[in-house]
Amino acid sequence: MKPIEFQCHVKSFKKLTPTVFETAFETHQPLPFDAGQFISVVIPGAGPNGRDLRRAYSIASPPEAKEIELCVKIVEDGPGTQYLYRLRPGDHARAIAPYGSFVFEDKPGRNVCFVATGTGIAPFRSMALSRKFQENPPALGYCLLGVRTEDEILYADTFGAMPRMKFVAAVSQAGPNWNGFRGRVTDYLKGVGSDFPWLETEYYLCGHGGMINEVKALLLEKGVGKESVHQEIYYK
Ligand SMILES: Cc1cc2nc3c(=O)[nH]c(=O)nc-3n(C[C@H](O)[C@H](O)[C@H](O)COP(=O)(O)OP(=O)(O)OC[C@H]3O[C@@H](n4cnc5c(N)ncnc54)[C@H](O)[C@@H]3O)c2cc1C
């Protein structure tokens, strides 16, 4: 669908972790999109000479949901995140959407492996909760999330409750009480057993560019074809 400019208003705001918040918007007209796509939020007057700026955010809610949910990492002095962080229920905003080709493709017989750093998990929440995914779930699903500390883990309940979905939080600087995996998502993937279905899986990678490049290199080493690797880089 061709992107359209639309008005929306905030329905809810909540902190998900100490540095990530979720804002739900109701759009003033229907917004059809595919799970995995993003919206471009207009940041009024924040650009040079008071011009508007735009920032991209993956839609974290499924296409069938009434509200559009965004999952945003707070960036200190970042105009986009500071603007969104200040919005409260009833406030209005402008955005343009849908954008992007990082969408879930239903491939019968294939497993799915989502790999994210931080808020890079947002499009995977949309994909996994979408009707398309729920009606034809992959035989096996993996959701690997890389964060620095355990209090930054996102959507563990959503992915943890899904049948045939293995959710792993890879925590690189975990505290002494963390019983889960310590290290980065790349370390986790390097250590999986020989029964990991490397060649029978579609890979979706999202978030930090460094992680995406490292995971891609590992996948190619394992013989995974480029056509099975899908990516969305948030920042380098
Ligand atoms: C297609 C696409 C989808 C995106 N979806 C999301 C999303 O769903 N949630 C989200 O939080 N961000 C997302 N981003 C990043 C987002 O567009 C902004 O770059 C980010 O919010 C920072 O904007 P800012 O104006 O606050 O700060 P800026 O001043 O523009 O950015 C400052 C720096 O913040 C760092 N940064 C940017 N994004 C992140 C991040 N997610 N986590 C940690 N550090 C970051 C980078 O080093 C960047 O150079 C997405 C980016 C793209 C390209």
Protein described:
This protein is of the alpha/beta class. The protein folds into two domains: 4-99, Translation factors (Elongation Factor Tu (Ef-tu), domain 3); 111-235, Nucleotide-binding domain of ferredoxin-NADP reductase (FNR) module (Rossmann fold). The protein has helices at residues 79-86, 122-129, 131-135, 156-160, 185-190, 209-221; strands spanning 4-17, 20-27, 38-43, 53-58, 68-73, 92-99, 111-117, 141-147, 165-171, 181-182, 201-208, 229-235. The strands form two sheets. A six-stranded antiparallel β-sheet has the order 4-3-6-1-2-5, with helices on one face. Strands 10-9-8-7-11-12 form a six-stranded parallel β-sheet. The chain starts with a strand and ends with a strand. Residues 38, 55-58, 71-73, 75, 78-81, 100, 118-119, 122, 232, 234-235 line the site of flavin-adenine dinucleotide (FAD).
The low-confidence runs, each spanning 5 or more residues with pLDDT under 50, are none
Mean pLDDT, as a whole number? Answer: 97
The strands making up the biggest β-sheet line up spatially as 4-3-6-1-2-5
Radius of gyration: 18 Å
Number of domains: 2
The span between the termini is 28 Å
Percent strand equals: 35-45%
Secondary-structure arrangement, i.e. CATH architecture of the largest domain: 3-Layer(aba) Sandwich
Instruction: Supply the CATH class of the largest domain.
Output: Alpha Beta
CATH H-level superfamily of the largest domain: Nucleotide-binding domain of ferredoxin-NADP reductase (FNR) module
SSE series: EEEEEHEEHHEHEEHEHE
Number of helices: 6
